[in-house]
Design brief:
The chain has six helices and 13 strands. It has 275 residues and is α/β, with parallel strands linked by helices. It starts with a strand and ends in a 15-residue tail after the last strand.
């Protein structure tokens, strides 16, 4: 496969916590790396207001012409507008991103599946992935070429944050991780916890980036912003975290993390995800 570069951002929090200078730094970084795909893994707004979605759209449109993979977060549905939360929680999201909440995006050499983990009628902060969504992902990856990179995008996190801060992982996270690993998923991209952490479960890398453009960083990223650049080659994935210090002009790279990708030989079983 040809090398594939993915810009992974999350938790823009367009609204009261939004930092315009961080957004401009993110746009400059996107211009420098020229990603093949852009992933925005939820919480693009602070309170799911129309004007906040309009701001998010204006920023995402400036990241370049690359195909985009979007998924909502718990902040992308109303919190205090209770009747809207109960009756039509994704109304403004759908106007922003389209009717479908679980989506598939295919580009040459890669298949991206985004699952909506926001559960506005069941959880305020935490999320849910239900069996129907697991089957949706299975069908999408089953129909992808065996040689494709397989990326799953989910806003909520699967593994605890090392600092101990943040909400609990998704209910059933270990079981879900095993199911997604058996589908041949190469990496899961998300956010939610506002501090960048890269962990593994069931032999599968989980990359949760921090807040790209708000003042809501937590733990060792209090006051900071972060995002990730994923570079896929035939058998390897290099994840480079980028962090922006308070008041800094630019996002700066930190040490990359490397993973081996699953076998893609014609006879390899779909459940054999990593060497």
């Amino acid at each position: 496969m040809a090398p594939l570069t993915v810009l992974h951002v999350s938790d823009l929090q367009c609204g009261s916590p939004f930092l315009p200078q961080a957004a401009e730094a993110m746009i400059r970084l996107a211009d420098r790396i020229a990603p093949d795909v852009i992933v925005a893994s939820g919480d693009l707004t602070q309170r799911a207001k129309v004007r906040e979605f309009a701001l998010a759209r204006s920023i995402l449109d400036r990241l370049g012409p690359a195909p985009m993979v979007l998924t909502p977060g718990n902040h992308d549905v109303p919190l205090y507008r209770v009747w809207e939360r109960l009756a039509s929680p994704f109304r403004n999201w759908r106007a922003f991103a389209g009717e479908e909440l679980d989506t598939v995006r295919r580009v040459p050499g890669a298949t991206f599946v985004a699952l909506n983990s926001a559960a506005p009628r069941r959880a305020i902060v935490n999320g849910r992935i239900d069996p129907r969504q697991v089957e949706f992902a299975h069908s999408a990856f089953e129909g992808a070429p065996r040689s494709d990179i397989r990326v799953l995008v989910v806003h909520h996190h699967f593994v605890p944050v090392p600092s101990g801060e943040g909400s609990r992982p998704l209910p059933g996270a270990e079981r879900l991780a095993t199911q997604f690993a058996r589908m041949g998923v190469d990496v899961v991209m998300g956010g939610h916890v506002h501090q960048l952490h890269i962990r593994s479960s069931a032999g599968l890398p989980f990359v949760a980036t921090g807040t790209a453009t708000s003042r809501r960083g937590r733990g060792d990223e209090t006051g900071w912003n972060s995002l990730c650049v994923h570079r896929f080659a035939a058998t390897t994935l290099e994840v480079t975290p980028f962090r922006r210090a308070p008041q800094a002009e630019e996002f700066e790279p930190t040490d990359p993390v490397h993973f081996s990708l699953r076998s893609r030989s014609p006879g390899a079983a779909g459940s054999e995800v990593f060497h």
